[in-house]
Fold this sequence. Notes:
This is DinB family protein. This protein is mainly α and 185 residues long. It has a single domain, classed as Four Helix Bundle (Hemerythrin (Met), subunit A) (Up-down Bundle). 61% of the residues lie in helices and 4% in strands. It contains seven helices and two strands; from the N terminus they run H-H-H-H-H-H-E-E-H. The protein has a two-stranded antiparallel sheet. The mean pLDDT is 93.
Amino acid sequence: MDIFRLIQDIKTHLKLSFNEVDKWFDKDNKTLNYQPSNGGWTVQQILEHIYLTNFYLLILIEKGSKKAMRNYNDLDVNNEIKNYSFNQEKFEKVGKYGAFEWIRPEHMEPKGELGLKEIRSLISLQYHQCLNYLDLMKNGEGLLCKTTMTVNDLGKINVYEYIYFLSLHAQRHITQMQNNELELM
C-alpha cells in the first residue's frame, strides 16, 4: 500500500468536500431556509449538522492520532503499511445520501444556536484540523490506532479512515442540500 498516496487522496477529497460545503454559505436566504416537503432539514440546518458531526468526529480523530503517535514507538509502522489495504468500497455508501439508514445521536442535531458566519468559520477551522492531523501522521502512523465506527457497520477503522469518513459525511449532505435547492426551483 502506498500510504503517501492514500494521505494525498484523502487531502484531495477533503479539499473538494469542504470547498463544496463552503459554497452553500453564499446561497440566498430563500435557499438557506427552504424547508423541503419531506420535512427534512433546511440547508442552514444541514450546515450546522455538518459542523456538529465534524466536532464530535474530530474528538475521536484527535484521540486516535495521539494514540497512534504513542504507538509509533512500540509498533512496526512499516509492517502495518505493508499489510494494509484500503477498502474504499466499504466506505462508498457513507458519501451517498439515502444509501442506508443513518441514526444520528441527538447532540449532532442542529439546534439553531449558531449563526451562519460562525458555522462557516468553524467548518473552515475543522478542515485545517484534518489537514494538520494528516501532516502529523504523514509516515503511516495513522494506521497504528483503530477505533470502532458503528455507522453502516464499518467496524474498526484507522485514523486516516476516520478523516475520510468525515469528508464523506460532508459529501453525503451536499447531495441533501442540492436536493433541497432542486425542490425549491
